[in-house]
Amino acid sequence: MTSGTQPPQADPGDQWRPQQPWPQSAPERQAPQTAAQPVPPEPAAPAHSAAPQPAPPEPAAPAHPAAPQPVPSGAAAYSAGPAAGGGIAPAPAARQQPVDRAAWWHPAAASDPWRDPGSRAVIETRPAPPVPPVEPLPERARPNTRIGLGLVVAVSAVTALIAGTLGAAVGVWATRGDVGGAITGADPETQRDLTSVAGVVEQIMPSVVTVLTADGGNGSGFIVSDDGYLLTNHHVVVGGGTEPAEQLQVLFSDGSVTTAAVIGSDPDSDVAVLQIEGGDHAPMVLADSDKVAVGDPVLAVGAPLGLSSTVTEGIVSAIDRPVLTENNNGEVESVMAAIQTDAAINPGNSGGPLTDIAGQVIGINTAIASTAAEGEAGNIGIGFAIPINQAKRIADEIVATGSAAHTVLGAELGESELGTGVTLSKVVDGSPADDAGLEDGDLLTSFNGTRVTDNTQLIALIRKLAPGTVVTVVYERDGEEHSAQVTLEAAAD
């Protein structure tokens, strides 16, 4: 038996003669339906159904008509007229029809509407449901001719792929405009002042070299005298080994290569001296690093990741930053009161100059802070340089004597809580500390005007100064504060 919730079965012998319509589901009642032919009025519907109305004229097709729906198997397709109130009138129940499965849907049936164009099949279509109007798209902004972040990311990706290589090619990217895909841009300003960054770089670049290490890597260096002396790092001349090389190849910014002799190096300060043959070399000017202030603009020049003659710009982020560096065996090798900068420094920059905005050297780039695993370190905006005043003193001693002296206070340091000062656990007899009246157990809180918070900081501040320097120290003893003048000395061999 049929009901108002399912379509009646079609008479198989009448080529889909229109029968009583079946009720529409809720989604079908949302919009009038389009029919191929009107439906004659039906007898009164059951009590729960509204009376059917004559079919109105066929509505115009919507702008985007819905695709025709397939006719349900074994049933005729119908379109219901609008009911009172604009709805779709539900169809009355239809009589049960016998089903002959050998009829029109049989493969050999002559009355199959899909094979007989003359059959009176009715195809039902439904208009698309109404949708809210589409908001107009905002007007697209005109492209900015400045290079965007996409280029930065692209170059970073290329750089990551060629880490450790020399002379690698870096792709050039360009932004496109709206008109015909043409590349947009303007001619750069070529009338540069000698004091501009470009003007400064042009003057100093011939004095900066790439140092090719014995293990196939590279560092950087720079000329400091017209007779061919160069400064670089101790860990550059050591390469992947434990002993400095006797000679290394150096590459100039013009592409020429020459051999440099390793005059000497000092692992405690991470300074090394090289010398190239010939005369009339253009040295860089060395500035007074003691006058550097936080916020001063700086340039870092060198060969990061083998990319020779690279220049980055930043500022001095901090001064007298205590830094520990390790050798290839993981042992602490040097302690320094470094200049911290946010200028990009990467592996390969080691030994290159950190300059002020005028191109005068204020430090030797030597280390970076990193959160990456071993072998994956890269710039995160925290780099360190040896103050050039300290490096020059060490270099002069290496050239003169082949080695460098190291400054000491003459006391063993005990464990102290961070921020409370440094405890002198044992003062060495006859040392500078002993001569100044310091005793075992004194808590040193200030050194040469700088508040002391931990052992590493105190050692770095001492090693920064030359032997013979007189400093003022402040210390606490038995709850009382005292001060003393200490003349620093060189450590005994």
TrEMBL record:
Top-level EC class: hydrolase
GO biological process, one term: proteolysis
Positions with biased composition (Pro residues): 53-71, 127-136
Transmembrane segments: 147-174
Domain of life assignment: Bacteria
PROSITE patterns: PDZ
UniProt KW keywords: Hydrolase, Membrane, Protease, Transmembrane, Transmembrane helix
Composition skew (Low complexity), residue ranges: 72-81
Family matches, as Pfam families: PDZ_2 (PF13180), Trypsin_2 (PF13365)
E.C. number: 3.4.21.-
Family, similarity comment: Belongs to the peptidase S1C family.
Protein name according to UniProt: S1C family serine protease
Organism: Glycomyces mayteni
